[in-house]
Design goal:
Lyase 2-enoyl-coa Hydratase, Chain  A, domain 2; four-stranded mixed β-sheet; alpha/beta; 259 residues; globular; six-stranded mixed β-sheet; 2-enoyl-CoA Hydratase, Chain A, domain 1; 2 domains
Length: 259
């Protein structure tokens, strides 16, 4: 597939995807939604065992491209969310691969939501995060009302959403919104390096970890214990488990295959 709004490649078991509308700070348009989802959905069958996501130019993603709506009719925003944004968020969360994100600049509105959707998020020291929705009279969307209180707590979530104030990468890290802050010139290399590492790990177990933690909010302790029991039983029958145990006793690096 020829992509117009993203850059895409697969190497060393990693599907590398870069949002590629740098002149618009990689703001979303319908074509970007469709291309990004297509690349993500194709990644497992194409042999990828991890995904690396970033943005081209000086921004990660500025959210919706409002310029496309300046002179047109008022859109049905519920239709926009249902057709484009919500399927994208669900695709990333359901993907049976770890998704590593490098936020290389501003992440605003749905761009911030996109970053929070990913499993492990690195941010450049100069990067900023902004829940911009209130500035145009909207509620946070693309999962932000779900992610923010779970990651940062209710008080900070309401402050971010109601005030629409920009926060730094360091503050996002302090609040638990992201995994790590890197120097600007290193953020993409470090995040890609982690994605390459994860691609060598027991992929089935990584997918199970992702699903278990995402689903934990809907389980009480008893259900969580039962879920761990069932998943552990299945993983204990995989080739990767046998390889991991053998490598432990043989004092060598395991060669995981993802099965």
């Amino acid at each position: 597939m020829a992509y117009q709004t993203i850059r895409h490649s697969i190497e060393d078991g990693v599907a590398s995807i870069a949002l590629n509308r740098p002149d618009k700070l990689n703001a979303f348009v319908p074509e970007m939604h469709m291309e990004l989802r297509a690349a993500l959905e194709a990644a497992p069958a194409a042999g990828a065992r991890a995904v690396f996501l970033t943005g081209e130019g000086r921004g990660f993603c500025a959210g919706q491209d409002l310029g496309q709506r300046k002179d047109g009719p008022t859109p049905d925003l519920s239709e926009t969310l249902g057709k484009f944004y919500n399927p994208l968020i669900r695709t990333i969360r359901a993907l049976p691969l770890p998704v590593v994100c490098a936020v290389n600049g501003v992440a605003a509105g749905a761009g911030m939501s996109l970053a929070l959707t990913c499993d492990i998020v690195y941010a450049a020291r100069s990067a900023t995060f902004l829940q911009a929705f209130v500035k145009i009279g909207l509620v946070p969307d693309s999962g932000s009302t779900w992610f923010l209180p779970r990651l940062a707590g209710s008080a900070r979530a309401k402050g971010l959403a109601m005030l629409g104030e920009k926060i730094s990468a360091e503050q996002a890290h302090e609040w638990g919104l992201i995994w790590k802050v890197c120097e600007d010139e290193r953020v993409k290399d470090e995040a890609l390096g982690l994605a390459r590492h994860l691609a060598t790990q027991p992929t089935t177990a990584l997918a199970a970890i992702k699903a278990a933690i995402d689903g934990a909010w809907d389980r009480d302790l008893d259900k969580a214990l039962d879920h761990e029991r069932d998943v552990q039983g299945a993983l204990g029958r995989t080739a990767d488990y046998r390889e991991g145990v053998a490598a432990f006793f043989e004092k060598r690096k395991p060669a995981f295959k993802g099965n």
